């Protein structure tokens, strides 16, 4: 029985990959929506500046990039953690066998 449990733990990361992919896609979508709403509150503009937008200043572009990166990292971490905890609750096994994670 111990061997079976060990094999199940080894296969979990492979089984988690499609779930992790779906969670990653979802977190990217949610982060994009959160950034758009945040930018609208901060600057009262519908569109955030793009790095190649000729009419925007460096400060605006870098501020938008910093805010977008922070929001993306927080949302991604929250969704990843919630997904891993859900897998652990349903299977009894943490989906990633080693410490450190994806980064």
Rg to the nearest angstrom? 19 Å
Report the β-strand fraction as a percent range.
under 5%
Q: How would the global form be characterised?
A: elongated
Distance between the termini: 34 Å
Query: In percent, how helical is the residue content?
Result: over 70%
Low-confidence stretches: none
Number of strands: 0
The main pleated sheet reads as: none
Q: Could you give the order of the helices and strands?
A: HH
Mean pLDDT: 84
Structural class: mainly alpha
Helices, by number, come to 2
Question: How is the topology of this model organized?
Answer:
Layout: H1 2-43, H2 58-91
Helix pairs in contact: 1-2
Protein described:
The protein has helices at 2-43, 58-91. It is built from two helices and no strands. Helix 1 runs antiparallel to helix 2. Helix content is 74%, strand content 0%. The protein is elongated and about 50 Å long. The relative contact order is 0.16. It is mainly α. The model has no long low-confidence stretch (mean pLDDT 84).
Could you give a short description of this structure?
The protein is an all-alpha fold and 103 residues long.
């Amino acid at each position: 029985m111990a061997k079976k449990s060990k094999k199940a733990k080894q296969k979990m990361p492979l089984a988690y990959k499609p779930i992790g992919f779906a969670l990653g896609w979802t977190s990217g979508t949610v982060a994009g929506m959160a950034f758009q709403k945040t930018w609208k509150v901060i600057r009262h503009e519908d569109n955030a500046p793009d790095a190649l937008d000729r009419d925007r200043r460096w400060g605006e572009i870098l501020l938008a990039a910093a805010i977008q990166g922070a929001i993306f990292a927080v949302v991604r971490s929250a969704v990843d953690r919630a997904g891993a905890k859900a897998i652990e609750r349903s299977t009894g096994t943490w989906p990633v066998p080693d410490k450190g994670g994806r980064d």
